[in-house]
Amino acid sequence: xxxxxxxxxxxxxxxxxxxxxxxxxxxxxxxxxxxxxxxxxxxxxxxxxxxxxxxxxxxxxxxxxxxxxxxxxxxxxxxxxxxxxxxxxxxxxxxxxxxxxxxxxxxxxxxxxxxxxxxxxxxxxxxxxxxxxxxxxxxxxxxxxxxxxxxxxxxxx
Amino acid sequence: xxxxxxxxxxxxxxxxxxxxxxxxxxxxxxxxxxxxxxxxxxxxxxxxxxxxxxxxxxxxxxxxxxxxxxxxxxxxxxxxxxxxxxxxxxxxxxxxxxxxxxxxxxxxxxxxxxxxxxxxxxxxxxxxxxxxxxxxxxxxxxxxxxxxxxxxxxxxxxxxxxxxxxxxxxxxxxxxxxxxxxxxxxxxxxxxxxxxxxxxxxxxxxxxxxxxxxxxxxxxxxxxxxxxxxxxxxxxxxxxxxxxxxxxxxxxxxxxxxxxxxxxxxxxxxxxxx
Lengths: 157, 274
Ligand SMILES: Cc1cc2nc3c(=O)[nH]c(=O)nc-3n(C[C@H](O)[C@H](O)[C@H](O)COP(=O)(O)OP(=O)(O)OC[C@H]3O[C@@H](n4cnc5c(N)ncnc54)[C@H](O)[C@@H]3O)c2cc1C
Ligand code: FES
Ligand code: FES
What we know:
The complex is a heterodimer of chains A (157) and B (274).
Chain A: E1 2-7, E2 10-15, H1 22-29, E3 48-51, E4 54-57, E5 70-72, H2 85-92, H3 102-115, H4 121-127, H5 139-156
Parallel strand pairs in A: 1-5
Antiparallel strand pairs in A: 1-2, 3-4, 3-5
Helix pairs in contact in A: 2-5
Chain B: E1 7-10, H1 14-24, E2 28-31, H2 37-42, E3 50-53, E4 63-65, E5 69-73, H3 78-82, H4 85-90, H5 92-98, H6 104-109, H7 112-118, H8 124-131, E6 135-140, E7 143-148, E8 153-155, E9 158-159, E10 166-173, E11 179-185, E12 195-201, E13 207-211, E14 218-219, H9 221-228, H10 233-237, H11 254-273
Parallel strand pairs in B: 1-3, 2-3
Antiparallel strand pairs in B: 4-5, 5-10, 6-7, 6-10, 8-9, 11-12, 12-13, 13-14
C-alpha cells in the first residue's frame, strides 16, 4: 500500500506492507535509525516518536495508520545545526549514560512539555512513566526535563 | 515481532466500516487505537485476515452533554477523556481513571470504545463504566441498539457485540457531586492493575466495578446491595468477592487477590463517602 507522511518536515512517500510497524518503516524504510527498538512489546518507550505532535510508541503503530501524519523523530529536533533545548538540557544535566533510551526519553519529554509546559517533579516522573532507563536511575533525566521547562520559559518570555 | 500478513481497509465513515464488516465477516477485525489488538497480533495470538481501520472516524470522537447523560464517542482517546472539563464536573471518575491507563503514549492512541470492546478483565475503563451504570450503543447494518454495561461483558475478551456491530457511543449518567473512588493497585506506575475498584456511591443506586477479579470485568452487585442497605464500608467490603471468580497469575494468588479486593473496596467506599 502506498503511504505518504511528513517526516521531520520532509514529505516521504513509500510502498509498505500493511503489517509494517511504524518503527520499522522509520528505521529501515526511511533510514532514520535514531529511533530505537528496546522491548518490541509496547513497554519501554525507546521507540517513541511524535505523531501529529504527540508521543506514541512506534512499535505499536502500523505505518499505514500514520499515513498522512506529521511524524517527528529524534533526528528532526535540531534546528540549523543547533540541538533542541531538550537535547541540550539532557547534555547539561548528564541525563544519559549508555544513551539507548535517550531518543525515546527526549521525544516523550518534548511531548510532555507541549501538554504541561511547567511540570512539577512529580508530573515529569508520571509523564515519563512509559519510558524505561536501565542506567541512570532517572534522577538526571528528571532534572534535565525540569531544566528544559525552565529554559523554554525563558525563551518564550 | 511483526504481525502475520493481513489486508488493510480504512473506513471513511461509520457506514463504510459497517459495510466492510459485512463484506469480510468473521475474518475481519476493527482497528481503533490498536493498543490492545496490535500487541496480540505481534504475538500471533490474533491473526485477522482483514483489518478495518476506524481510527480516523473523527465524528465518533466527542464528549458531549446530552441532557440527562454524557455521550462519549467510541473513538474518543484516553487522552481526551483525561483532559475533559465536562467530565471533570459530570463524571470525574472517568476522567481520573482514563489518566491511570498505561502511560501517556498509550493514552494518545487507545480509545474508550476499544477498551470496552476488548473486554479485558484487567482493563480499567470497563470497571468504571460498570460503576457508572453506563449504556453502550452498537450500530449494525440493521440499525442501532443499546446494551447495558452489566450485560455487555460476556466472557474472557468477549462482549455482547455481534461480529457485524460497531460500538459508536458510551452513555454515562451524570454523577456530578456524588462521591467516587478509583483504586488501582499495581507495582509500577505504568502497569495494569493487579486488582482495581471503581465506586460511585449514591445510596440505592451505588455502583461498584472490579478490575482483574475474574474472566470478565465484574460488577460487584453484592457490595452495591450492602451499601444500599446501609452497611458500613468495612461490612460492605466483606462482600467484595461474592460476584467475582479471582484467578491466580504471576502477580497474585487467588488468596492475595481476594484480600486485595476486600481492602480496596473498603478504601474505595471510605474515600467515596469522605
Ligand atoms: C503498554 C500498554 C499498557 C496498557 N495499560 C493499560 C492499563 O493500565 N489499563 C487499561 O485499561 N488498559 C491498558 N492498556 C490497553 C489500552 O487501554 C488500549 O488502548 C485499549 O484497551 C484498547 O483500545 P484501542 O483503541 O487501542 O483498541 P484496539 O486495540 O484498536 O481494539 C481492541 C479490540 O476492540 C475492537 N474494537 C475497537 N474499537 C471498536 C469499536 N468502536 N466497535 C467494536 N469493536 C471495536 C477491536 O476489533 C479489537 O478487538 C495498555 C496498552 C498498552 C499497549
Ligand atoms: S520498543 Fe516500543 S515500547 Fe519498547
Ligand atoms: S541511558 Fe542507558 S538505558 Fe537509559
